[in-house]
Amino acid sequence: MVSSRISGVGNGDRPDGGAMVQKRQVSVESLKTFITDVKAQWHQWRYGLLAGLFVIGAIPLGSCSLDLYRTEAAEVPRLVYSEISEPKTFNPVTSQEATIVFGLLYEGLLSENAITNELEPSLAESWEMSEDKKRIVFTLREDLKWSDGEPFTTDDIVFTYNDIYFNPAIPSGERDILRIGDEGAFPTVRKIDDRRIEFTVPEPFAPFLRYAGGLAILPKHALEQYVNETDAEGNPRFLSVWGTDTDPTQIISSGPYTMVRYDTLQRITFERNPNYWKQDDTGQPQPFIQQFIVQIVESTDSAMLQFRSGGLDVIGVSSENFALLKREEDRGNFTIFNGGPQAGTNFISFNLNKGSRDGEPLVNPAKSRWFNTQEFRQAVAYAIDRQTMINNIFQGLGQPQNSPISIQSPYFLSEGLKSYDYDPDEAKALLESAGFKYQDDGRLVDWDDNPVRFTLITNAGNKIRESMGAQIKRDLDNIGIQVDFQPIAFNTLVEKMTKYLDWECFLLGLTGGVEPNSGANVWRVDGSLHAFNQKPQEGEEALEGREIAEWEAKLSQLYIEAAKELDEEARKELYAETQRLTQEHLPFVYLVNPLSLGAVRDRVEGVEYSALGGSLWNIDELQLEQQLMP
Description:
The chain has 18 helices and 26 strands. It is of the alpha+beta class. The strands form eight sheets. Strands 1, 14, 20, 21, 22 and 23 form a six-stranded mixed sheet that branches. A four-stranded mixed sheet has the order 2-11-10-9. The two termini are about 35 Å apart.
């Protein structure tokens, strides 16, 4: 239950996509049948949300030997997982990347069952909502403690919301999605006593309960001083606290695990939080798995090798690796799960920002004019052969994607959206209607005879995305556009998007969910992840000349209105209009919605695979057979 975040994986590379009623094994034939039958099967899959946004990447074991891991695994119940890049920060508020780390460390007052999609008690044992839906009172569980043994009270909740999430000097996606109405007001958070906390809103706010109960709570005793103190530039020191150079044992948690070690570029080690509130019916403390390892490497190929050799317990199954892993399923003692369509999105986006810094435009003015021409973006969409992408890169295990809203959401518009089936002739006609011209050699130039050429970036090491980028380069070459395709480090890419704003086109993905307002940080014009026309972050150098298009402002307003609307049918129509606008104006050119497939060792018991929850949404309930890793 967090704002949209940038996914460094996706396209089948995560174990936590797909929604289903019960876990099931899959075959090649059943998956091919899915492609033609997806609408009929849809109602079997509309479940789940992962509050912690568990995202998988790819990992080697570095210098650690597998034999050592097998020996240690026999002594300590542990699960080994992977991510494709190391974290930029261990601060859950300032991070914009999807990672499993924060789901292990932090909890909200409520959690969401990824199978039933129902809100359930977590740090709060109960809640009451007023009849007018403007007031919620949560009651905390008794004797809650932070991982360092300090009491967890309503003071921590007041601090988290009032001093961090609502703080204008601390930008975050959470701050964006908590804004209410045209004025962007925030809920009022008031302590009643040490166990009761009251949230009130000035006007109706449809995701009120989900956000009041679902966001991570942070420890006041550990972080208050950093919120109140400023650095040399006048920014709260909180913006740089709990960086990757912090002693992991100093990072206080409320979730099932605590961080005990971070080996840069290698792995993050977590151990069971001794003060975690949850236990089973016999009084046994949870989580049952005592140790959790997140391995870090540079490519999905490395993760695949490590999983096949027994070094990982969980991996997202990309379409290119499905057939190989399926053949090894029995011998390798693992099960492949099918969750149906992935919950997130993947797309290319052009930098529409017309702003400048110190007189220097962020984007070359000629290219900026191309990118801000609607016919240009639509032509690019028509020129990308998504069905060939599905057939070749995703082995037929996917479908065209046309919406920013997850297919699992009740607000997903399944019909009536503009689509861009492959049509290079239509692409060329659109370009010529906008004033572009073709030379004798077939190359495209603009109205000033500038060759049409731009740079497309994506995160290096993600083989699926690299293959997609290579195809996009070929497809656009067919309509005379030259694309310079450059995979770069994920963290470098995120900085270019969110800090420096000096990019031309990127291929990336965003996490999804059932609540569309979780994307408010993307679609509101002042959102912290309004990537295609990003405003500067707090503390960054200002821009001159940033412009907001009429359709862009309308999208932003629709998200404000939809969040206020309590009537479900009216709310669905508002979000339907947002989807129609995004497909008409194409701030993001959506590509493919692949199947979500995950492989989990059979020694991991209790897996309930879900599109929005993945393999590990119920990590505190999972158990391991007492045996050596295969």
